[in-house]
Design a protein that fits this description.
17% strand; Isopropylmalate Dehydrogenase; 324 residues; 11 helices
Length: 324
């Protein structure tokens, strides 16, 4: 049955977007995930639900007694999941990263600790998970008013990315889209206008990023920009503006000019357009699942499903621009 939102838009596209993603996961081996400090009911419930669907094989990292007590209170069975002892949230973050570095886990997942605590362990120069690629964040968004999943980046990590940072942000998102089954994703570099002008620096960056594709510095996708938001996602708006482009009106990926714009865009889509937003950190040695206490069950499962697809693509060498 097709449901409708308050404004009359059908929700079939959104439902199909995540359901299709999860169907692709059904034939894959679950990804082993080190879960850092799942010491709050919502966080632990999400882990157990994803494990029961065979999206992940979790290793719980935190105080064993606290995790087991929480599981009993919440009616969750965690007896089949290994628990690595860590006294507090910071120790859990470090231990979870160690599990990845020792190849015991293929992905990392945020439990109930602060994102800064987890990312501090991830970016440590001596013991972290950095690569030659800039780390960035992407939302895989499912909207009732858009016919396919929409990747929005970066809305959580890079505050004022340089041109070089944006190159990596684009490549990370393209590789993610490949993992989700998009052979040649269409990347819209967002700004306030469609023309290049020195008055708006993000338009200069957008033009340079498009030239980087011509020089092989960004691979695996079609880029166009600068594009205003309407021209990136609306064929009618692009046509009205006279923009002839394979990307305009049909974007798979939206690259924001900075974190403020990306964060505002993602939250607008979530709260005004009723989008679901599965979050993942990219550019590290492994995918990193970031969930929020405000996430619903479907979003949590989708985040785990996206991580599984990324891990599978790495196992099979299907990602063209792997982090070095």
């Amino acid at each position: 049955m097709t449901s409708t939102s308050a404004d009359g838009a059908t929700a079939v596209g959104r439902r199909d977007a995540y359901e299709s993603l999860l169907r692709r996961c059904q034939t894959l081996e679950p990804v082993t995930v080190a879960v850092a400090y799942p010491c709050e009911e919502t966080a632990l419930t999400g882990v157990v639900e994803a494990a029961e669907l065979r999206l992940i094989a979790p290793i719980l990292v935190g105080p064993p007694q606290k995790i087991c007590e929480l599981a009993r209170e919440a009616g969750l069975n965690v007896e089949n999941y290994p628990i690595e002892d860590a006294s507090d949230s910071r120790a859990a973050a470090v231990k979870a990263v160690e599990l990845v570095r020792s190849a015991r886990a293929e992905a990392l997942m945020k439990g109930s600790l602060h994102t800064d605590e987890l990312m501090s362990a991830v970016v440590s120069s001596a013991t972290g998970l950095r690569t030659g690629r800039r780390i960035s964040h992407a939302f895989v968004m499912s909207l009732p008013t858009y016919p396919k999943p929409l990747i929005v980046t970066d809305a959580a990590i890079n505050i004022a990315p340089s041109l070089d940072d944006k190159r990596d942000i684009c490549q990370n998102a393209i590789d993610l889209a490949h993992s989700l089954g998009r052979a040649t994703p269409k990347v819209a570099i967002l700004s306030a206008v469609e023309t290049v002008t020195t008055k708006i620096p993000s338009t200069i960056d957008a033009a340079a990023l498009c030239k980087m594709v011509d020089r092989g510095q960004i691979t695996g996708g079609l880029l166009d920009g600068p594009l205003a938001m309407d021209n990136a996602i609306s064929p009618e708006a692009a046509k009205t503006k006279g923009i002839s482009s394979p990307v305009a009106g049909d974007a798979d990926i939206l690259v924001a000019p900075d974190l403020e714009a990306g964060n505002i865009l993602a939250k607008q889509l979530t709260f005004l357009a009723r989008a679901d937003a599965a979050g993942l950190v990219l550019g590290a040695r492994v995918p990193i699942i970031l969930t929020s206490r405000a996430d619903n069950v479907r979003t949590r499962l989708a985040s785990c499903g996206v991580a599984l697809l990324v891990a599978h693509a790495r196992r099979t060498g299907q990602v063209g621009g792997k982090p070095s």
